[in-house]
Amino acid sequence: MPRLSTETREQRRQHVLTSAWRCFARDGFHATSMDDIIAATGMSSSAVYRYFRSKEELIAAASGESLAQLRELFAGLLARQPAPTPAETIGALVGKLARRSEHADYDLSKIAIHAWAESLRRPELAASTRDFYRDLRGLLTELAQRWLDAGVLAPDADPEAVATVLLTLMPGLLVNQYLIEPVSASQLVAGLSMLGAATAAGGVTER
Q1: Least C-beta-crowded within 10 Å: which of 25, 42, 48, 60?
Q2: What's the CATH class of domain 6-195?
Q3: Could you report the per-residue pLDDT of 83-103, keeping only the tens digit for each?
Q4: Whose CA is closest to 20, among 69, 63, 58, 60?
């Protein structure tokens, strides 16, 4: 039997991954079996197991890919000169989610929701997810620092606090997207502006 080229092996590995993503997005991690994934690939079981030894490996790969795409978005925004405004950043985030959800059978943002739940029961996945979001908060803090330097934020603004708000918005966007109704960038920007004015006037009491 002829040996597969590196390119062919990578194509087949990616095909297994995307087949698993379709199954996971449709049925979730626990209702999806390896037999389901193998059937979706149209490959033999031995061929599939050549690339991934278990469903757990496919879950980890799916979770990692769903997070990596989000990191790429903010890394791209940081690379822009001049830096995008806060409103443009929120627009880019909402737009990215809308584009990813256009293909419901291949929607990695939906898989991210499953990955959060899976992280609660798998310590190694929880650790990698936690590290990812801490890294992402660092990117957002860097972006907020650029807003501060450019005079977009008030001189006494805390870039890390701004980053924390942006990071906290992301799960809510996904909940609205799939369980309530999608939120537009204009709705989000308007609401944040009104809330910001109200909270600044009222102060904060720590409990």
Answers
A1: 42
A2: mainly alpha
A3: 889 999 999 888 877 776 555
A4: 58
